[in-house]
């Protein structure tokens, strides 16, 4: 995986160092971004040593152990620990990943852990996703219909129609893709970003939805859609192996075909 550039203000000063236990069988060192905006202090990079043989295999396991046994003030999001909820997305060794599905054994040398890049930081590894969620909501990610529902059954799809939306619907809104995108870094308030556009596409191609024209009209905008320059970082960063870049190209193609 290619590394994604971090913003200059995310390069913090050296902080506190906690050594690994003297009897550690597999000593590992984690350099973790620490920042509390309420404190008035500049960001720092704390170093935590641990025995990888004495904790779980994933980066999230190491973070939980550090919080439980070394520094209870370390702040990060987590929930499912199964790569489903997307809560523990962070930048690990320069790549946006889920901490719960990234094995310590995959990473060589010191492990550098930062929050997702180019977002305001709430605290430590917790980014502010307010704008990200607002952009997702703006594409109206729900079924829109004009005709009455059948009185005796659900709105049905064929197997082939369902398979078209199966992969786009697998997005877990972890924000790994959007925060790996330079276009989103520089135009994040106007460019919807890969995650929101993937969600829009999922409903555009849903055979049950009756607002396809309105959805496409809403995306016909120089910034909402066309800031994508097919850099492909989004596809490389996705922990669910989705392809937002291809989806965005498909939306552009649909708009061209409507005009022709």
Short description:
With 260 residues, the protein is an alpha/beta fold. The protein is built from eight helices and eight strands, in the order βββαβββββααααααα.
What does this protein look like?
The protein is α/β, with parallel strands linked by helices. The chain folds into 2 domains: 8-127, Ubiquitin-like (UB roll) (Roll); 130-259, Orthogonal Bundle (Fumarate Reductase Iron-sulfur Protein, Chain B, domain 2), CATH 1.10.1060.10. It has helices at 59-69, 130-138, 159-166, 182-187, 193-204, 212-219, 233-237, 244-259, and strands at 13-18, 27-34, 44-51, 89-92, 95-98, 111-114, 121-123, 126-127. The chain has a 6-stranded mixed β-sheet with strand order 1-3-2-6-4-5, covered by helices on one side. A two-stranded antiparallel sheet has the order 7-8. Strand 4 (89-92) and strand 5 form a beta hairpin.
Q: Which features would summarize this protein structure in a list?
A:
single chain; 260 residues; alpha/beta; Ubiquitin-like (UB roll); Fumarate Reductase Iron-sulfur Protein, Chain B, domain 2; 2 domains; 6-stranded mixed beta sheet; two-stranded antiparallel ribbon; 8 strands; elongated; disordered N terminus
Q: First CA to last CA: what distance?
A: 39 Å
* Biggest sheet details: 6 strands, mixed
Question: What's the CATH H-level superfamily name of the largest domain?
Answer: Alpha-helical ferredoxin
Strands of the widest sheet, in order across it, are 1-3-2-6-4-5
Global mean pLDDT: 93
Number of strands: 8
Number of discrete domains: 2
CATH names the topology of the largest domain as Fumarate Reductase Iron-sulfur Protein, Chain B, domain 2
- Name the beta content range: 15-25%
Assign the structural class, choosing from mainly alpha, mainly beta, alpha/beta, alpha+beta, or little secondary structure: alpha/beta
Are there runs of 5+ residues with pLDDT below 50, and where?
A: 1-5
Q: So, CATH architecture of the largest domain?
A: Orthogonal Bundle
């Amino acid at each position: 995986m290619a590394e994604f550039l971090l913003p200059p203000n995310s390069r913090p000063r050296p902080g506190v160092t906690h050594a690994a236990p003297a009897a550690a069988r597999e000593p590992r060192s984690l350099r973790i971004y620490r920042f509390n905006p309420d404190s008035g202090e500049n960001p720092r990079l704390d170093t935590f040593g641990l025995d990888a043989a004495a904790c779980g295999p994933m980066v999230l396991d190491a973070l939980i152990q550090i919080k439980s046994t070394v520094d209870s003030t370390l702040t990060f999001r987590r929930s499912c620990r199964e790569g489903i909820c997307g809560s523990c997305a962070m930048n690990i060794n320069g790549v946006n990943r889920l901490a719960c599905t990234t094995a310590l054994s995959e990473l060589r040398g010191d492990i550098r852990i930062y929050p997702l890049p180019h977002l305001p930081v709430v605290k430590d590894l917790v980014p502010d996703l307010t704008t990200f969620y607002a952009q997702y909501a703006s594409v109206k990610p729900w079924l829109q219909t004009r005709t009455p529902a059948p009185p005796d059954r659900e709105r049905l799809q064929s197997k082939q129609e369902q398979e078209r939306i199966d992969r786009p619907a697998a997005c877990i809104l972890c924000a790994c893709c959007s925060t790996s995108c330079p276009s989103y870094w520089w135009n994040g308030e106007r460019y919807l970003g890969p995650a929101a556009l993937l969600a829009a596409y999922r409903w555009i191609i849903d055979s049950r939805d009756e607002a396809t024209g309105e959805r496409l009209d809403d995306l016909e905008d120089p910034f909402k859609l066309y800031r994508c320059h097919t850099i492909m970082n989004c596809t490389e960063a996705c922990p669910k192996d989705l392809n937002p870049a291809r989806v965005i190209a498909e939306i552009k193609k649909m708009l061209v075909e409507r005009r022709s």
